[in-house]
C-alpha cells in the first residue's frame, strides 16, 4: 500500500508544483496519472522514490515512512521501486543486455560493472526479462539500433532486474507513435495482471488511461482534481481536468 498524505513540493524558486495532495494506492493497482503539462505529475512521481525532497506531507510505502528515511534506506527503497522515463535513459552505445544488467547494480558488486563482468545467473535473468517484454532476440544489439518502443521495453526489462514491487512510469510513451505506445503499454499491463506489480504511470492521452488503467488520478495546478475510474470521466469532468477548451482525442 502506498499512502500519499498532504504532499506539497515547492521548488527552490518558490514555485509550488504539488499542493497538499493525498491519495492511497492498494497493492496491485494500475493507476494512470493525468493532467496538463506542468500539472505536477513528474514532481509527484519523483517525490515517491525521493529523487525530489517533499517540502511537507508524508509518503508511506508498505509501512515505511519514505519522507523520514536515512540515505541507506533510500538505496533500499530505490531497489524496490522501478522507474522508467520518457527518454528511456539507456546507454545507447552499449549492448541491450548490458543496459538491462545495470538494473541489477544495487544488488551486485559494483566491481562487476566496472570490469563489465556479470555472473551467469544475472545474465540469464536479464535475458528472461528481455523475453518477458518481447525482445529477447535483440539482446546483443547496441541499444541505439532499436526502435523507440523497443528501447522503452529495454528500460522496462532493466527496471525488472530490481524485482520491483512498484513501478513508476513517467510519460513512458510520450515520445512514441500510437501503435508503438500500445506495444509498450501492453507489457506494463501484463506485468500488472500477471505479477500483480503496482503501477503508477503518467500519461498524456486519456484514451490510454481508459484502455489500461484501473484508476485515474488527475492533477491540476499541483492539486488533486479527480480520483476515480476511467469510466467516471465524462465530458464535464474532462473539462474540469483539462480546461473548457480541451477536446478529447483518441490514440487507437
Ligand atoms: N526545477 C524546477 N524549478 C522550478 N520549477 C519547476 C522545476 N521543475 C519543474 N518545475 C515546474 O513545476 C511544475 C510541475 O512540473 P512537472 O514536471 O511535475 O509537471 P508534469 O505534469 O510532469 O508536466 P509534463 O507533462 O510537462 O512533464 C511546472 O510548472 C514546471 O515548470
Compact summary:
The chain is an alpha/beta fold and 252 residues long. The chain is built from nine helices and ten strands. It is globular.
Quaternary class? single chain
User: Which class do the helix and strand fractions yield?
Assistant: alpha/beta
End-to-end Cα distance: 32 Å
In this entry the ligands are: adenosine-5'-triphosphate
**What is the strand content?**
15-25%
* CATH 4th-level superfamily of the domain at 1-80 and 166-171 and 214-251: P-loop containing nucleotide triphosphate hydrolases
CATH architectural arrangement of the domain at 1-80 and 166-171 and 214-251:
3-Layer(aba) Sandwich
> Which geometry do the CA atoms define?
globular
CATH-derived topology of the domain at 1-80 and 166-171 and 214-251: Rossmann fold
Question: Poorly predicted ranges (pLDDT <50, ≥5 residues)?
Answer: none
Strand order of the largest sheet: 6-7-8-3-9-10
The Rg value, from CA coordinates, equals 18 Å
InterPro entries: AAA+_ATPase, ABC_transporter-like_ATP-bd, ABC_transporter-like_CS, ABC_transpr_PhnC, MetN_ABC_transporter-like, P-loop_NTPase
Keywords: ATP-binding, Cell membrane, Membrane, Nucleotide-binding, Translocase, Transport
Protein name: Phosphonate ABC transporter ATP-binding protein
Domain ABC transporter: 2-246
